[in-house]
Structure formats: C-alpha cells, structure tokens
Q: What sequence folds into this?
C-alpha cells in the first residue's frame, strides 16, 4: 500500500506554491548572526519572523552556559527524567521557575506541546469539561481530545459565551478553562481578569498557556497572569522555553498535587525524553538574565513594537487588535500573502507567512515578530520593504 | 478549585515510596563521565539504566559538533521548521537519514512522541483501522486516538490475532499496522517478516518505530527493518535520536507523498519547535559515526550483551525473551523491584525500575541498558552487585 493517495488540499497548496517558485516555506538557514541570517544561500536576510523576542538565543552568556553543559554532561542524558534524565541543570530551571512564580513546583517537558498534552490528560477525564478559546494553540485541543473530556469552545475572548458554557456545565466534576495568555497569530491578550472572576463564580480551574507571553509581559515578565496580577489565582501555568527564553522545551508551574500527578502519570512526561543538557543549560542562564535584566529588555522590546506598529498603522496597514510584540500584518488572501512573504525575502527581510489552517481561511497574514535587539535602522528596513512590496501586491 | 483532589493510585505509590525513602525515581544527576554519573550527591554511580546504547552522548567528536552548532547558530532557531527553523544541520540530518534508508525523504521532530503523533494523525482517520501490538510505545496509541481511527490491538507479537484483525477490517479505507521494531521494556523483536507478509496479503500499510533498534540492529544498524532486509517493504520508519544517536528528537523516513503530508498538515510538526542547533549538530555527527564506525560499536555492544545475559542467566535470573541490549531483570512485585533498584544505587549501580503502568501489573522489572562502552570490569560489577542485592531481596 505504498502508493496510497493522501488527500490533502493543504499539502496540495504547499506543493503548488513550491512548484511555482513562490513558496516562502522551508527555507534552509545557513547561519545566524544577531538579527541577520543566511537563508537559501542569501546572506544577511533580516529576521522579522522570530519568536526569540528578547534576543536570548544569540546572547553570548547563554551560548557559553549551553557549551558548559555539553562539557559537563555530553550531548544527552541517559534516560527519561523520572529515571536518570534529570540533571542539576533541569533541577535548577525548575526551581527557578517555581520561585519566580511563587508556586510550589515546576516541571520541564521536551516541548510546549508535550506540556499541554500532560496538563490536559492529567487534569481532565470523561467526567469533565474542557473549555477552550477558539484561538488556543492546537496542542491544547489535542490534549483535551486525548483526555476524553467534553470539549466546549467559545469564540475568541467572548466572555458572555464562556459564562454560558460554564453555567451549563455545573453538572460536570471539573470545569477547566484553558486560554493562551497572548494569542500567537493575533498578538492580543486574553481577558484573564474576567476569566478568573467567572472561574471563581462557577468553581472552575484556570490553565494559562504563556508560550508567547513569558519573558515579555507583566511587571516581572512572567506573562499574562503576571500582567493581571493574578498568578495566585491561576491553577496551572504552561510555558515554553523556545520563545523568549532562547532555548527549547516546555514547562508547567503549579501546585504540589498537580505536579505529582503530572510527573508520575502523564505519558508526555514519563514516556518522553527530557531536554538535553545543552538545552537545559541555556535555559537556566536565560532565566537568570530575564530575572535580572528583563526589565531593560522588555523596555527596548516595547519601544520597538511601538515604533514599528505606529509606523505601519500610519501607512494604513491593518495590524488587527495586537497589543504585543506579535504584529499580524493582515492581508486576507492566502495567495497574496505567500507572494508578499516571498518577495520580502527577495528584498532581504523575512516575515512568517501564516495561512490556513494556522489561521482561519481568508485571514492570511504576515506574522512579524519584533525583538528587543532590533535596531532602529532594522525597524525602518522592515517598514520600508513592506511598503515597497505593498505597491506590487496591494493589500 | 485550586485544592482539587486528583485521584491517582499511581501518584500515591510514588509518593509512598518517596516518603519511605526507597524511591529510585527522580534522582538528580550532577555530572556524566563515561559510564559513571554523580547521582544524588553520590559519585561514580555506574550507569546501567541508559538508552545511550553506543555511548555517543559521551563521544568527544559529537560534543564538539554540538558546540560548533551553538557557535554558528546560537542556542535556538528563530521559529517553526516550516517557517525559519530548519538549518543546514537539520537538512543534513534529514538527507543523511533518507540516504541511509534508501527512502525518498526524512523529517525531524522535537521528539519520538511527536513523530508518532504526526504519522498516525496524518495517515489515519475515522475511515481507517490502526492495528497495534499491545506493547507498542504509548505515543503510538495517543496518535491513533487523536486520528479518530478505529483502534484494534493484538497480544504481543500474536500473528494469528493480527491476521484475524486484518481479515475483519477489509471494509476500511486503510489498514495501518504499527509495531515497535524492538520492544522497549522487554527487549524482544517484532516478527517483521511475518507482519510484512500479512500486510501484503491484506493490503495494509506498515509503520515501524525503531526507537530502540536504530543504531543497534541489522547489518547496517538501521533497526528491525534492516535486520529483516525489509526496508523497502515498510511504508514509514519512525525513530528517535535520543537513544543510540546520543542526542534528542525524533524522525520519520518515508516516501515523498507521506513526507509532504507530514510537513504541511501534522500539528506536531507544523506547530511545534524543531530541534535546537546543538541537538541537530550532535545528531549529524553521531549519524556519521554510526555509518562509518557502527559495525565495530555494534560488535562491542553484542559482546557485552552476551557476557552479561549469560552471566545473569547462569545464576538463574529471568531475562524473559530479550534478544537485544535491553535486559529485563524480571522481578514481578512492584515493591520488591523498587527496593532492589534503590539498594543497587546504594551499592553504586543504577538500573531503571519499570513498574505499572509502564509494564503490566505484577510484571515489574529492572531494565538494564547495556552499551557498547561498558568495560568487562563494569559488566562484572553489575552482575556482582545484582547477585548481592538478590540475597537481601530474593526474586
């Protein structure tokens, strides 16, 4: 059955763009140097499709810590974290995260996706309802489906609908509200303050995925819950180290009881290898930098966001409702978005094309990822090139 | 709802062993040096719970390649692999894997689990049947569940039962047989030759997870399919780089059509960060070593396996049906297994305690992982200490 036909309109779209020579996807990156990358044999492409919001993946001290970890441990641990794969570096990251959040404990995962799978499969079962914002990360929906719970979904940030679902779910053992803190394709925030009021009214748990907000948002840079002063009212915080932390892997910060359940029963923890020493070592150093220098980095990030977003908006470019370092340049048509992204690379600027199914059909966009390390000249270059391409492909 | 009770007998067991001071789980590892680790402040613990079967996580050339990758790229890529996260190192690993297997293409994942999720959710849907060996890795069951396919399970390696399931599934669009190549807790092989005959008879696809066999088994070290000379008859090969390759992450090797579907539609690929540069750099060097020096490493591994298994079996220790570097020291009782593993650590030898639910209730065991780099003296030390502990805790 090797010549089986896989019917996939999405794969067909990708193959079509590739054949036409306009696909911006799957570029090969030859090297990184600050905000410039070598991409498909083109040197010096300016990176504006990044999730490395604080520039820490390029920080010399983070690189040196990662190299030290390899010299101390080699290139991998010897087994699952529960058995023999948890080093002092992993322990250090977990202790640091728990202390920062003033929570009982933290747990590291190989990815943010595996963290979400663990949380949902551990907290929810067929007797429960998992209530999702429609724009939550897909790994949350995957975890909810694996849990066997009833899945209810509300339109993006629609608190009236959330309350209606809560009030019709009081017969369930648990109601678990899950929301991204900062939405990855739109750049707007969840109304966490309102969600918490509703959760208390209807005796629901709250899980917040701070993948794109950790390091960037809130007075201490811990994310949306920190921004709302609500860390103590959130039951579970999920995060990743692959964005602002400049390393890879995911984490969960929570109370002792949930922590114990996750680390002893969640297959995406117990049956998957943890971070390599290099990854944990980089994360530990990056967390120290975020704690001590984070405010300065976030201030620079905010200035860059303000500069670019006001520059683009003054030219009539639609950035939807973003209030963060994620700037969605709304285009609409998938085909136009692909062509704009491709031409931008030819002009030496990379932005991430987001098309269906990562965003709803007809809401395709460029996802501009601003970082703390972009210089004013680099911000200008983005704006200039984007306006240039818009003349060719109006949007 | 923060003080919610999570009912979990498994978590209770872990907490109980911890409170009693006999838990061998969650040790903190302070450093690695060859086959010795610093564990819970105890120096020089001999590692026999490892999946680093060829010793490559401790290979100087692999470490140097990983360090070079950090110097070239920093500690992470800038985004998803489809967008800007695929470097020349990732490309190199994929090309190497595809060439070794003589298949169209390979694709890297952040973990073996994410690779299995991608394969199952891309190949299977509600119109299909996924047919699993009961002892397959849990990520295969998770992927099958997410796919919405009908899931059928046969007793371990029971080919009569597999044929019965196939013959009663002919009304389905696809029949997808999934099996571990080498079973992770038992160390025995799947009868891939028989599975392939049945797959051809009933027009079924074959997916083999070579997590524990890649690098270790077959004339070219590619795993169970290589061992059976059946690489061309297997539709999809899944593997990990966290065992014999000495790095982390997973991979899929397959034909162009499935490869396109995976990289454009599978959420565990498209919506999860790929390997860090350090991880990809280590893997690339390790694959070169496996290609050029693998035969010598596998020969040494085989000698160590033969030495230890005959030594233990001659003392009446039950190693079940293993025929590989995974030696299950069958004990039965969960409590005895925990105590034996704990006392072995006190004697300076680490083995991995496998208890329910990772193995069936009452079939608890120590999982001894032999590597190519264990010396004869280290093999003797394992045997001696195990026999010593058996006097104290008979099994």
A:
């Amino acid at each position: 059955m090797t010549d089986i036909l896989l019917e996939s309109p999405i794969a067909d779209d990708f193959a079509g763009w590739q054949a036409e020579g306009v696909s911006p996807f799957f570029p090969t990156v030859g090297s990184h140097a600050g905000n410039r990358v070598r991409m498909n044999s083109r040197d010096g492409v300016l990176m504006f499709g990044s999730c490395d919001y604080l520039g820490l993946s390029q920080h010399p001290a983070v690189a040196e810590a990662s190299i030290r970890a390899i010299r101390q441990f080699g290139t991998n641990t010897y087994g699952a974290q529960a058995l023999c794969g948890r080093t002092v570096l992993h322990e250090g990251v977990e202790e640091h995260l728990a202390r920062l959040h003033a929570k009982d404990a933290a747990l590291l995962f190989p990815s943010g996706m595996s963290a979400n799978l663990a949380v949902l499969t551990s907290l929810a079962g067929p007797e429960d309802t998992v209530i999702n914002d429609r724009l939550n990360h897909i790994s949350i929906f995957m975890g909810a489906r694996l849990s066997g719970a009833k899945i209810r979904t509300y339109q993006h940030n629609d608190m009236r609908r959330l309350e209606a679902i809560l009030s019709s779910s009081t017969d369930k053992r648990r109601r678990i509200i899950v929301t991204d803190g900062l939405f990855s394709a739109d750049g707007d925030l969840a109304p966490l303050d309102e969600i918490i009021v509703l959760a208390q009214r209807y005796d629901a748990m709250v899980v917040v995925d701070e993948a794109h907000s950790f390091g960037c948002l809130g007075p201490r840079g811990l994310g949306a819950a920190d921004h709302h002063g609500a860390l103590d009212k959130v039951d579970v915080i999920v995060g990743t180290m692959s964005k602002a932390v400049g390393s890879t892997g995911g984490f969960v910060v929570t109370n002792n009881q949930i922590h114990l359940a996750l680390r002893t029963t969640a297959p995406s923890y117990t049956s998957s290898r943890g971070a390599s020493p290099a990854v944990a070592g980089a994360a530990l150093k990056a967390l120290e930098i975020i704690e001590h220098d984070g405010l300065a980095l976030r201030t620079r990030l905010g200035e860059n966001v303000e500069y670019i977003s006001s520059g683009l908006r003054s030219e009539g470019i639609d950035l939807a409702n973003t209030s963060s370092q994620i700037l969605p340049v709304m285009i609409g048509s998938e085909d136009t978005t692909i062509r704009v992204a491709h031409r931008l690379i030819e002009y030496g600027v990379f932005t991430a094309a987001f098309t269906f199914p990562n965003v709803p059909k007809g809401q395709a966009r460029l996802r501009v990822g601003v970082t703390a390390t972009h210089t004013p000249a680099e911000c200008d270059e983005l704006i200039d090139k984007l306006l240039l391409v818009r003349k060719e492909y109006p949007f």
Observations:
- The mean pLDDT of chain B is 96.
- The longest helix of chain B spans residues 277-314.
- The first strand of chain B starts at residue 29 and ends at 33.
